[in-house]
Every structure is written in C-alpha cells, then in structure tokens.
Amino acid sequence: MPITVLLVDDEPLVRAGLRAILEAQPDIEVTGEASDGAAVLPLVRRLRPDVVAMDVRMPLLDGIEATRVVLRTVTEPPKILVVTTFENDEYVYDALRAGADGFLLKRAAPAEIVQALRTVAAGDSLLFPAALRRLAASRGNERARAAMERAALTPREADVLRLMTRGMSNPEIARSLLLGTETVKSHVSAVLAKLGARDRTQAVIAAYESGFVTPG
Questions:
Q1: How far does CA 209 lie from the centroid of its chain?
Q2: HTH luxR-type domain: from which residue to which, for each copy (predicted)?
C-alpha cells in the first residue's frame, strides 16, 4: 500500500512542487490538498492520510494549532511533517512540542523530501535538526528536569534515549547496543511511557529540555 499524503500550504506553487516530487515515487500518493490549517481536520477525517505535510504559518489557522486539533480530535491521527522555510523558527519548535513528528525545509532537495516523508511515515526514527536541538536545550527548565528524574530510566533505557536523540532508528540502535530490534522497541516503548511522551519527538524534546543530553 502506498503512503498517502495530505499537503497543507497556503502557497499553490509549494503544493504543486511537493505533489510533483512525491507523486514521482511509486510508494507515495498525494490524496488531498489544503490551503489553510482550518481545512485540515475535515480532510483528515475524510481522507485518512498516513502523513500530513503541514506548513507552519498560514493565514486563518496556523500549523501549530492545526496539529493540536488533529491530535486532540482524531482517534488514530496521521503523522505530521512540518514543512517550513526557516530551520531555527520557534514556530517549528512549538509545532513539534504540539505533537508534530518531524521537520523539513522547503528548500530541501527532492530526495531529502521523499526520505523525510518515508522516515516520518515509518515512525521509528526522528527528524530533529541541530538548530532545533539547540533551541530545545535553551528551553531547559526545572519542570523538565524533575520529570526526567521521576521517570527513573534504567541504564539501558537511558542508553536507548541517548541514541534516539541522535535520530537513530530502532535497527540502528539495536546494532549500536548489540540488542535485538524487538528488545529495542520494548525499551523505546518504556521510555515513552515513563516520560509521558506521545512519540519519539516528544521524548527527545524532554531529553534536551531536561539537560539529559546537550547539543553537540
């Protein structure tokens, strides 16, 4: 089955460019488009896309609030890939905190766009560039540090989280730690549960904001 995608951007040329790039791939199908975040929820309910490629800044409802609405309302929500112009944009960071699953620059090469979408759709690795890692670390606070302490990760879970912050997939973590992939999946699930994180992105944000890891 192809990966189905909903494109959301207020610029028709951006949507047309993304559609051309994605539909050239045999495993990706663009099933809908929207020019504003206000149209996302009804389209998600009707089309049930695997991934929403979401602009952040839109005139009526921005991508941050549209992400919150979808995740709050839809029982099995799609993955959300933030597509924007500036990599150090605080709006992007806020979208990731709201629950978006990854991040992509509009100026990325076609191969990078395709790979980013496949990565987000698979859900077992992370798109979280260096500029956003630094921004997350700068948002450090006592609440995040206290939450990390309460999580009481085991040494192995801590190892897994450190590798998650480097964007590694489960198979890559398994090879690094000489573990089975299913064992790694169990550790990732435990980390998410202990941190109260919806997904890997939220766990990595918690790791940086708490000082568990630092950009480097």
A1: 17
A2: 146-211
Q: Residue 196: how many CB atoms within 10 A of its CB?
A: 12
Q: Is pLDDT above 80 for 87?
A: no
Residue labelled with tokens 């897994």: 160
Rounded to two decimals, what is the model's pTM? 0.78
In this structure, what token pair is assigned to residue 175?
A: 């090879």
Name the phi and psi angles at 123, rounded to 5: 75, 10
| 149 burial via Cβ count (<10 Å: 0-12, 13-18, 19+) | exposed
Q: For 32-96, give the DSSP string.
A: EEESSGGGHHHHHHHH--SEEEEES--SSS-HHHHHHHHHHH-SSPPEEEEEES-TT-HHHHHHH
* Per-residue pLDDT tens digits for 195-215: 998 888 889 889 999 999 988
Q: How far apart are CA 189 and CA 154, in angstroms?
A: 13
